[in-house]
What we know:
Layout: H1 23-52, H2 65-75, H3 87-93, H4 113-118
Amino acid sequence: MKTIQFTKPKAKKINYTSVKPDVQQDSIDEIEAISTFSKSRSSEKDLFKANTDANYFTVITFNNSDQLDEFILKLGIKVEDKQYINGNALAKKLGIEITTPNRKAPGNFKISKKLIDLV
């Protein structure tokens, strides 16, 4: 069994722009740091949602499996598993050009402390 190690993230350092302590400027710098952090968390949240969204597929049904087999045979594309057909391969076979670029495969996501605590 693989052991997962979790490390607590280090606190972000705030870059204060004033040479001497200045309550007003230091507060502005702290708000800017919070804003930057919020934006990065928001973009990570959006990326996670895009990479885990299940709304990228559709279902085509037939009356029986023989009809499905006939459909796949007449498509003339290689199908590894009859339940899943590569949409780009199908579009190409049908003469449809998909111009939307592929999304980069997701990397590792940060794991919620709440989930870690549950384990």
